[in-house]
Amino acid sequence: MLPMNTCTKCGACCVTYRVTFGREELDRAGAGLVPAELVEAIDERRVCMRGTNLRHPRCIALRGTVGSEVACAIYDRRPSPCRAYAPRAVDGNGDMCCADARRLHGLPPLKGSYDAGLLA
Ligand code: SF4
Ligand code: SF4
């Protein structure tokens, strides 16, 4: 089990954005780790996590309740956008995308954001 941190009490980004990445990250038809059964096609080169290409997105791999307690069911196999997203958020330092996602789901932007002026 992963330790509790800012993100495991949030999950807002997993229910806000389309999570798009290249087919090469798939465990089938690629050399990567992301389970192919959890994605849908965008075009010949790209896929997205199922559930994130909807008007009200929710990634199929997200477990739990946003803003309370969440987990990623494929944390060790998650795609590159998830690995790159707001890398300091787990320590309570967000960025603009993180803040937007949190606001959209009724959560305040993280304090200590390293985006200058974001929290002004
Ligand atoms: S990166 Fe930001 S929006 Fe995403 S789970 Fe962490 S705190 Fe929430
Ligand atoms: S793969 Fe995991 S971290 Fe990425 S959007 Fe889905 S639930 Fe969130």
Largest sheet: 3 strands, antiparallel
Instruction: Output the helix-strand order.
Output: EEEEEHH
**General form:** globular
Helix percent band: 10-25%
Strands side by side in the biggest sheet: 1-3-2
Please tell me how large the radius of gyration is: 14 Å
Structural class: alpha+beta
> In total, how many beta strands?
5
Low-confidence stretches: none
**Roughly what is the average pLDDT, rounded to an integer?**
90
The end-to-end distance, rounded to whole angstroms, is 36 Å
Ligand inventory reads:
iron/sulfur cluster
Individual helix count? 2
Percent of residues in β-strands: 15-25%
In a nutshell, what does this entry contain?
The chain is an alpha+beta fold and 120 residues long. It has helices spanning 80-84, 96-104, and strands spanning 20-22, 39-41, 46-49, 62-65, 69-72.
Task: Describe the structure in your own words.
With 120 residues, the chain is an alpha+beta fold. The chain has a domain at 7-84. The chain is 12% helix and 15% strand. The chain is built from 2 helices and 5 strands. It has helices at residues 80-84, 96-104; strands at 20-22, 39-41, 46-49, 62-65, 69-72. The strands form 2 sheets. The chain has a 3-stranded antiparallel β-sheet with strand order 1-3-2, with no helix packed on it. A two-stranded antiparallel sheet has the order 4-5. It is globular. The chain starts with 19 loop residues before the first strand and ends in a 16-residue tail after the last helix. The mean pLDDT is 90. Bound molecules: iron/sulfur cluster (2 copies). One iron/sulfur cluster binds at residues 6-7, 10-13, 85-86, 89, 94, 98, 101-102, 110.
